[in-house]
Amino acid sequence: MKPRTRALVVASLSLFLSILVWFNYSAVLPLIVEEWGLSGTRAGIIFGAFQAGYLLAILPAGRLADRRSPRLVIAVGAAGTGAFSLAFALFATGFLSGTALRFLSGLFVAGVYVPGMRFVSDWYPVDVRGRAMGIYVGTFSLSSGLSFVAATLVADAIDWRTAIAATSVGALAVPALILGLAEDSPNRTARSDSTGFDRSLFRNRAYLSCVSVYSWHNWELFGARNWLLAFLLVTPAFAAGGTGAFGVGSATLAGLLVGVVTAMSGVGNVLGGALSDRIGRTRAIGLGLAGSATISATLGVLGWLPLPVLVVVLFAYGTLLSVDSAPTSTLVTEVVEDEQVGTALSVQSFVGFSTTVVSPVAFGLALDIGGYALAWPTLAAGALVGLASVAVLERSWDGR
């Protein structure tokens, strides 16, 4: 196996094991809401706490990845992510303790995702970087989806605490993987200075446009992932309860469907990355956002659809939600100086994921006020702002 291929495989596996933690709470959300008596707003706050922890740590993590080996940052980040998620399964008893432990787990996962992007971009040249980044970022979606599937099945068979624990322990194996099986690129450019933050990034209009696109992409994506399961459980296809298809209960079937839909975003990432190598980054980004916005705007009134038709719509939605993700992050690595890549990606992630603290809560507030018909368009609004940012990006960048 070529060194760069091994690096991509190990980085992607490390991300996969760590991201199993990110959405395990969402996978068992209805069970936790029932046991703890949570409102829609409080349930959204617990999810948002994970995002808030991520935001607090992402800038230091990105700077460390520029100055030190990204593998060391990934190892520490994954260990903390798994440990605090396991603590959530064992010790969380309500809104306050659940919020605190999810926050701490999110704090450490900042050391995995963006440093991994820096690591992969070090190994791959521009002409094939879109594909490589698509595979790496797609692992995020694949892991998120399988987390839903695994947590749903374990919760159905045992309970939600065991489900959270089962999807947390894999992250604890990442340090051995990333430190023992991978190495840094010989072409890596590291910054050894100890100066402050490089403010020149904020004079780069193309970079700022990428940050905006990514922010509104995340507004839509994470709002959808947090609330899709709860939405399905009130649609006619699932609300009646009883036995669903394939001999499993309706709630379990809904959870499995959400898992597959989430995993479809992995397909969207790979497709978007490869497509951006062919037709250009901005065109691929625009196509993805336009498609996902259309479905987000209408999904709240489509709950009456027969299950087979609803499944087709959701599979398309899961794919389209992430078509723009890999091209946007790849573009960041191309519009900034090489020694700024880690910092630039971390700023992008910091600003981008700040919207994920708000959008699940905004969705919950809209849900409390006007139901799902009002809640889903709050996500489409984010995608439309993202499309406007693509237009600005095209005017400020003369690349592909």
Shape: globular
| Uncertain regions spanning at least 5 consecutive residues | none
* Helix-strand topology string: HHHHHHHHHHHHHHHHHH
Q: Compute the gyration radius: what is it?
A: 20 Å
In the CATH scheme, the class would be Mainly Alpha
CATH architecture: Up-down Bundle
Number of beta strands:
0
| Structural class by helix and strand composition | mainly alpha
Mean pLDDT: 85
Gap from first CA to last CA: 30 Å
CATH topology: Growth Hormone, Chain: A
CATH superfamily: MFS general substrate transporter like domains
What percent of residues adopt helix (DSSP H or I)?
A: over 70%
Count of DSSP-assigned helices: 18
Strand portion: under 5%
Q: Sheet bearing the most strands, described?
A: none
Tally the structural domains.
1
Summarize the structure.
With 400 residues, the protein is an all-alpha fold.
Describe the secondary structure blueprint for this structure:
Layout: H1 3-19, H2 24-27, H3 29-36, H4 40-67, H5 70-91, H6 95-109, H7 113-123, H8 126-157, H9 160-166, H10 174-181, H11 205-232, H12 236-239, H13 250-279, H14 281-298, H15 307-320, H16 325-335, H17 341-370, H18 372-396
Helix pairs in contact: 1-5, 1-7, 1-8, 1-10, 4-6, 4-7, 4-17, 5-6, 5-7, 5-9, 5-10, 7-8, 7-17, 8-9, 8-13, 8-16, 11-13, 11-16, 11-17, 11-18, 13-14, 13-15, 13-16, 14-15, 14-16, 14-18, 17-18
Describe the structure.
The chain has about 400 residues and is mainly alpha-helical. It has one domain: Growth Hormone, Chain: A, CATH 1.20.1250. It is built from 18 helices and no strands. The mean pLDDT is about 85.
